Amino acid sequence: MRPTGDASGPADTADLGQLLRGGPFHLALRAALAARGLPLHRVQHRLAARGIKLGVTSLSYWQQGARRPRHRESLRAVSALEEILDLPRGSLLRLLADPGPAGGPARPAARPYRALTSVGAAVERLLEGMELPADGGLHTVGHHERVRIGPDGELRTRASQQIVRAHRDGVDRYLAVHHGDPGCDAARVEVTAYENCRTGRVRCHPETGVVAAELLFDARLRRGDTYVFGYGIEDGTGARSTEYVRGFSYAGGQYMLQVRFDEAALPVRCHRFARTSPRAPRSSVADLTPSGRHRAVHLVEPAVRPGILGIAWDWG
To answer: Could you say which architecture CATH assigns to the domain 113-314?
Structure first.
């Protein structure tokens, strides 16, 4: 498996002066690193000596074109990189002010779904400074999600098992976002890594009940690799729940959602639905009948499309 700092390719031998003049930023940075022969962990140490905290993963994303430095601390790091790499002052920063030629880094196929929801702005604020790639670098092959509703009708827990495929080299994490029901105490929500991952940084936004958590994989993926991991979220702090929805930014594989109700709080009606956007009317509505000892309902979508899938219920 290649180390994070390995970014072999045409840009490594490209003319550094030409790239500094015309960009794009990620190729200029990659060429400068190759020209100086500095691995990313050494660059990170030199930044730390200047009082700048920046992860090796963020540096890797910058030189791959998966992310562009935007925030104040990131731009401070770029300025320090010019000194560390013995580049003309302002040469890298200027490229960030310039969108670059058509051959610059490709954008994701669509905006992240969180940007389309009512809490999208809150999530974006939580993620400032985390320097995560815009689309995560992953496609979902399969996602099985189990939600448990407590005796007071509250969302108690949800457990997810996912199969993903990397569409770029170096992917080593997944971002899980939880949006609690009204009244949710985000500071009390717990995120637990179950299988083939561990919990990294966790951010919460108390005003909206949003929690964003990094799940760090046990391996760094190469393009085309598949990976299986599982995690859970324990809430139980919000008001009585009436639906559970999942948004999808891109087309993907199979999605299964199961909602299990406590015997002390059984709904009178349940149905599945879809939406093309948060404000669009519900479509593909179909009644669901709770069955089994745990009074559970479920939906299975063989191949998800961009939009929203969910299960709603009435308490009567």
So the answer is: Sandwich (2.60)
- CATH class in words for 10-97: mainly alpha
**Tokens representing 248?**
């999808």
What residues does 260 pair with on adjacent strands?
148, 296
In order, the DSSP letters of 87-104 are --TTHHHHHHHS---TTS
- Give the span between the Cα atoms of 56 and 142, in whole angstroms: 29
Q: Where are the domains of the chain?
A: 10-97, 113-314
Cβ proximity of 25 and 100 under 8 Å: yes
Closest CA to 117 of 310, 307, 312: 307
| Per-residue model confidence as pLDDT tens digits over 7-34 | 334 444 347 887 887 778 888 888 888 8
Q: Is the dihedral of CA 40, 43, 45, 48 positive or negative?
A: negative
pLDDT tens string 53-80: 888 878 887 877 767 787 778 888 889 9
Could you say which DSSP state residue 286 is in? E
